[in-house]
Amino acid sequence: MFFNTICVIGLGYIGLPTAAMFASKEKKVIGFDINQHVVDTVNSGKTHIMEPKLELMVKKGVDKGLLRATKSIEPADVFLIAVPTPLLTINSKLSIPEPDLTYIKSAANSVAKVLKKDNLVILESTCPVGVTEKMSLWMSETRPDLTFPHSHGENSDIRISYCPERVLPGNLMVELAENDRIIGGVTNKCSQRSIELYKEFVKGEFFITNPRTAEMCKLTENSSRDVQIAFANELSIICDKLDIDVWELISLANRHPRVDILKPGPGVGGHCIAVDPWFIVSSATKDSKLIKTARSVNNSKPSWVLKKLKLKIADFFNEYPEKKPKDLIIACYGLTFKADIDDLRESPSLEIASKVTKLNPGQTFVVEPNILDLPNSLKDLELIKFETAIKRADINLILVDHTSFKKQKVWGKYTIDTRGITHS
Ligand code: SAJ
Fold first, then answer.
1. Which residue among 7, 127, 190, 272 is the active-site one?
2. For residue 90, what pLDDT band results from cuts at 50, 70 and 90?
3. Beta strands 78-81 and 120-123: pairing type?
């Protein structure tokens, strides 16, 4: 075995579970994060992320002295980079959001400073095509005393690979072990080393390719899902116009042996599907028409939901003319970007809920069982319990299909169900 110590850079949704998984296999793991709160939380055997089975695994690793978090990158045998790649603000000329590689660049630079001959560096962060090769170049500039695979091939001192994760939040610890992995080594030896490492806990198959294909593979998987969700969202708008129940329609169409339509919703959130397609669009703008259109279909869904809400409010006052606008109570059910998680990143429900308060002259309630406090952008709203909201609200707006919401059988006439839970 060529490795004893693994340094995981970035203890977020991918880095922390991966670090905990290696520790569960008796490996020594150093977890690096720039955030002091994250470092302290992990070192106390707790987690800052809600994910089934994660906290127990972190606690075991910390208690056994195998997992330790730190704010400085230390020498190791393997460096696994799992830092965020957000989008920069809109590029004014093209209106295409550009990827922000600052975190990857800074991680590469810090890792380079402590590199030793025979180290393996794996990039797991989602990135535009070509970044792994660039990372090898950036590191070689910081460490001219070492050789790197982009220039020295199989004889290089350092091995570098791109190995994207494909785990689903909510089922992360299971998928981390069971999913197949794409291994994009800069050379074959880089790939072989990476497989040797992941074999510690991955039960799925390994598929070797080059870094560019591996990078594009990750982007393709998420863009494919985005395009399919856009189709479902477009159908929901068309069906509404044609007075057809979209949920019934999809379930009937899906009885065809080769049709499998996804579910419409209030829009697409999370830090992957709502972001990654832009990495393709920004690299090949003219040729990514469908991918770009899917993004705009999904991005426009929150406005459509708000239009439906305005119509519902008008219907409500037609039926109850004695009610005053300031007495209207609207309840929004769910803020997370999907069901049964606590993650609010890029959630369309956040945008919708904040706009509901602006168009509602009365009170707006929010029900979100998976968070304790509302984010700053929603401080004007009131976070309340489901039972109170369902009793008091005049209009219900269902934004997330949390399991607990599905237990409610009667929602009332003035309900907008963006997730189809009242139809199941
Ligand atoms: N959504 C719909 N309708 C659907 C399915 C999803 O509106 O039928 C919405 C969800 O509500 C959510 C968004 O799409 O707002 C994304 O949710 P998701 O469950 O499709 O995906 P994520 O973001 O939780 O995880 C995705 C996964 N990618 C694919 O399924 C191709 C996961 O495997 C990746 O590892 C992850 O992105 C990532 O980290 O890239």
1. 272
2. low
3. parallel
